[in-house]
Amino acid sequence: MAVVHPIVARPARLAAYLGVALAFGVLLALLLERSAPGAGFAASAAFALPMSLFYAFQCLTIWYPVRSLATDAAGAPRLVLVLTAASFAAAAIWLAVGLGWSHLLEEVGFAGATGRFRLAASLVFSIGVFLFALAALLHALFAAVERSRAAERRALELQVHAREAELKALKAQLDPHFLFNSLNSVAALISTDPKAARRMCFLMAGFFRKSLGLGARAAIPLAEEMYLAETFLAIEEVRFGERLRPELDVAEETLALSVPPLVLQPLVENAVHHGIAHLLEGGSVRIAARRRGADLELEVENPSDPERPASRGAGVGLANVRARLEATFGPRARLSVDASPERYLVRLLLPATPASS
Fold it and tell me: Distance between CA atoms of 352 and 98, rounded to whole angstroms?
């Protein structure tokens, strides 16, 4: 909780508040002049203006009990009782200060100030009760708004923390998934083509060095994501040779747009390991990127064998990407799959946001 009153904490607010208090002091002076004839406006203003400033600061003190008591609806009766008693007590204090101030004015030359104040004492007390009760009500409303905003901030913070935790868990799932598949590819080449296996290891080292650095970032330019996809396909070309034919159809304007890191790689991996790998003649893995109004559309397409058995773990990468998009963009991003007997197409649609430099 803030220790300093929000009005006092900002000079502009304090100046405006005191301006309102002085305006009220002028009105109070007019009322006193009417209730005690013969005093004159100057004498009434000499009494009312300082008294108004004093009571303005006195009304600010209700901020602290209001904030401590107005915690929930269950404490409302207690709060009303406390504020009512505080209003009468504050008005009584104001009345006592007014009596002392009238004596001081009488000593410095405002003859009859004490007598005139006594005639207007009931009016001053009533105004004091009303003003303090009004200040208490306004402070209670302000405190309620403040608590509501604080609750909204806490809810948003919890939502952000939960989303960050989910994304970290998904990234932790993604990295070993790709690593295991890549190691299996190297193991398959060691006995048949050791030279190709060594080359593949070097390519993998460069790929992991780049991908691990990007994985720590919330978003990257599509150009960097495409570099990873192309490097991955180069790694797999060592194993599949001419059976794997990459096709890139990427609009130049999309390369500077922002995407989550490693969002294409699992889809390209699936296209190779669950598509090309099951076809004797191989095929093309097509990666496309284009702008669709306010959205960025990404596609990964590969041929498929309708007679191949379902691969164990085939849906891990796809589910990972879907979950990451949902956690990052919510309903603003979509992932759709168009599967036919001879082709498999995954389409991503996400907000087209320029990547930060």
Answer: 67
Domains of the chain (ranges, CATH numbers): 6-155 (no CATH), 193-351 (3.30.565.10)
103 alpha carbon, distance to own chain's centre: 58
Dig out the tokens for 40 from the structure: 């004159």
pLDDT tens, residue by residue, 127-152: 889 888 888 888 878 877 877 887 78
Angle value at C-alpha 245, between 239 and 249, nearest 5 degrees: 135
Please list, in sequence order, all residues whose beta carbon lies within 8 angstroms of the beta carbon of residue 277, skipping any fewer than 6 positions away. Answer: 240
Calpha distance 187→290 (Å, rounded): 37
Helix count (H) and strand count (E) of the chain?
A: 11, 7
Please report where in the chains the tokens 């790689």 appear, as a residue: 265
Q: Which two tokens stand for residue 224?
A: 């960097």
Report pLDDT digits (tens) over 153-176.
Answer: 877 775 665 566 555 555 555 556
Global confidence as pTM: 0.52
CA-derived radius of gyration, the chain: 38
Which of residues 123 and 172 earns the better pLDDT score?
Answer: 123
pLDDT band at residue 258 under the 50/70/90 scheme:
very high
Instruction: Measure the CA–CA gap between 262 and 71, rounded to whole angstroms.
Output: 46
Which amino acid type is present at position 275? G
